[in-house]
Design goal:
Length: about 120
């Protein structure tokens, strides 16, 4: 009989310590139940991240400026159209040159990459 009373006291002490620890450290993973709205929000956030990096790579918006010697093909009031050393035609806004002149121009080097994709 004394053994049974001792066992009951011991099990009660273990239960109270366990409950005290759960209150201190928060719920266990089994006790956490996420609501559907959290799953929906996480899904939308994940889709935005995937779409922003895979479908519309934002790094294409950042120019990579290149300076090289180019030949002016045509000129008008809006600027010059010049041909790069590898055959691409690029618009240079402020330009006072005449067609056939060789000038040093700075332009976005990614123009070539975009034209190659077309």
């Amino acid at each position: 009989m004394n053994h049974l009373i001792g066992f009951l006291r011991f099990s009660h002490a273990i239960t109270s310590v366990t409950n005290h620890n759960n209150a201190k450290y928060g719920p266990t993973p089994e006790q956490i139940v996420m609501e559907p709205k959290y799953y929906i929000a996480a899904g939308i956030a994940g889709a935005i991240i995937v779409m922003s990096t895979a479908v519309f790579p934002f790094w294409n918006l950042i120019p990579r400026m290149v300076t090289e010697e180019v030949q002016v093909k045509s000129a008008d009031q809006n600027g010059c159209y010049v041909q790069t050393h590898d055959g691409f035609v690029v618009h240079i806004p402020p330009c006072n040159a005449k067609p056939g002149d060789n000038i040093t121009a700075t332009f976005d080097g990614k123009i070539r990459e975009r034209e190659k994709q077309i």
